[in-house]
């Protein structure tokens, strides 16, 4: 199969690679090659022609909370810990009701599809059955995801706290059902964050991560109150990151840590050593007043970075808007540093929203040979004046376009139809 269009992607974060009116060759759900002209011997029946439209890799959301979808856009006048107790935990507790969970989760998956997010790393509620339902909905949708039940067995409201035994049993159930080799949808160890998991649970989930070779996701250094709480609970730990490392959840299997705003030198060194993925969540960090992740420092050190919507600390699932806000925050840091700390370029931010986070899922987020053929078809007609370059057209779409400009979505070379809302 050959897909024709104006192809643009970022094999490296330094610059765009562009194939004007090029051909994306796909076989077995993977990219075979990019061509500036059609290879000899290819029949018209093998070509899907999108003319002058843009072909870009699908977006990757490296950090998002599915059960917080009903709270999208509300409760954003608090800091992290009060916000959790006032808005988040009460909402998530409702997901013991599977009818409610299906109603919300089907809308959440549809919203990801709508905004062109083809892969995501998702926190569910603490309920095993509802998390199972979310994973089923992802399978039905054709979108790729890692999703896991939130693990939390202490320091939570009485109405929303798990037992250690039930939490570990849930991880096993989901891992047995979903973690098949090369599956598009898989479960993931989802440590809510260190202060609300007992040592027994921490050790238990680390063993399960090792036994099942499960990836891990959690939160790190989002807020000063959270960091102080960790220090109070673990006074002998070198840092917050070292708590996770001590319990075998910091790179011992592939690991995402969200936020990573207020970091110590020893933590950054450990992140490099353990090949941690950091999920930068610009909308959430500004909404909750948490701070700005020092993305440039992470990139300079070689730490892997992707972008996250962090719904509902973040107020929207549109990754083009998250990408733009990441650039804007980096420009504020550039100004505050007297122009010494370079801001993110458009190519760098686009890389973070595609290949940067995508490689957590394997060869995802680029049109390089061997990468999975996840891509979007963008119709930017009407967004501005004609006769601009392909890169300028992409920039204009990212800044002023929306989901209406995404006319097709593909995952592993297959078009993804609009998911059902229940």
Query: What proportion of the residues is helical, as a percent range?
Result: 25-40%
pLDDT < 50 stretches: none
Biggest sheet strand line-up: 3-2-1-4-15-16-17
Structure annotation, total helices: 13
Topology overview:
Layout: E1 2-12, E2 15-27, E3 30-35, E4 47-57, E5 59-65, H1 80-92, H2 98-114, E6 117-123, H3 128-141, E7 144-148, E8 150-151, H4 164-178, E9 185-187, E10 189-191, H5 199-212, E11 216-220, H6 224-233, H7 240-246, E12 255-259, H8 265-273, E13 277-280, H9 282-287, H10 295-301, E14 304-307, H11 319-336, H12 346-358, E15 375-378, H13 390-400, E16 406-411, E17 414-415
Parallel strand pairs: 1-4, 5-6, 6-7, 7-9, 8-10, 10-11, 11-12, 12-13, 13-14
Antiparallel strand pairs: 1-2, 2-3, 4-15, 15-16, 16-17
């Amino acid at each position: 199969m050959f897909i024709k269009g104006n192809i643009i992607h970022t094999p490296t974060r330094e610059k765009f690679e562009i194939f004007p009116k090029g051909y994306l060759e796909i076989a077995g759900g993977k990219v075979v090659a990019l061509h500036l002209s059609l290879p000899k011997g290819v029949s018209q029946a093998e070509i899907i022609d999108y003319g002058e439209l843009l072909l870009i890799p699908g977006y990757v959301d490296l950090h998002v909370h599915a059960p917080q979808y009903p709270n999208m856009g509300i409760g954003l006048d608090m800091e992290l810990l009060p916000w959790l107790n006032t808005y988040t935990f009460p909402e998530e507790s409702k997901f013991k009701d599977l009818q409610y969970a299906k109603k919300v989760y089907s809308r959440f998956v549809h919203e990801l599809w709508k905004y062109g997010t083809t892969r995501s790393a998702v926190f569910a509620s603490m309920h095993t059955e509802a998390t199972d339902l979310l994973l089923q909905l992802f399978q039905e949708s054709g979108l790729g995801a890692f999703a896991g039940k939130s693990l939390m067995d202490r320091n939570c409201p009485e109405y929303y706290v798990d037992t250690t035994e039930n939490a570990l049993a849930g991880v096993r159930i989901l891992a047995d059902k979903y973690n098949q080799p090369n599956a598009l949808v898989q479960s993931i160890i989802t440590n809510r964050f260190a202060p609300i998991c007992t040592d027994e649970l921490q050790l238990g989930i680390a063993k399960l991560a090792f036994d099942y070779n499960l990836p891990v996701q959690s939160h790190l250094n989002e807020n000063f109150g959270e960091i102080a709480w960790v220090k109070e609970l673990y006074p002998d730990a070198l840092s917050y990151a070292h708590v996770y490392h001590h319990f075998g959840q910091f790179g011992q299997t592939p690991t995402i840590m969200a936020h990573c705003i207020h970091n110590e030198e020893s933590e950054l060194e450990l992140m490099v050593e353990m090949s941690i993925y950091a999920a930068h969540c610009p909308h959430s960090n500004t909404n909750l007043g948490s701070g700005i992740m020092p993305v440039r420092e992470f990139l300079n050190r070689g730490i892997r970075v992707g972008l996250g919507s962090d719904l509902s600390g973040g107020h929207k699932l549109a990754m083009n808007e998250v990408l733009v806000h990441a650039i804007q925050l980096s420009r504020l840091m550039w100004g505050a540093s007297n122009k010494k700390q370079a801001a993110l370029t458009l190519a760098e931010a686009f890389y973070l929203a595609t290949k940067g986070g995508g490689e957590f899922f394997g060869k995802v987020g680029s049109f390089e040979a061997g990468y999975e053929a996840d891509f979007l078809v963008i119709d930017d007609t009407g967004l501005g004046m004609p006769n601009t370059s392909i890169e300028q057209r992409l920039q204009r779409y990212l800044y002023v376009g929306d989901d209406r400009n995404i006319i097709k979505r593909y995952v592993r070379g297959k078009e993804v139809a609009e998911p059902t809302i229940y």
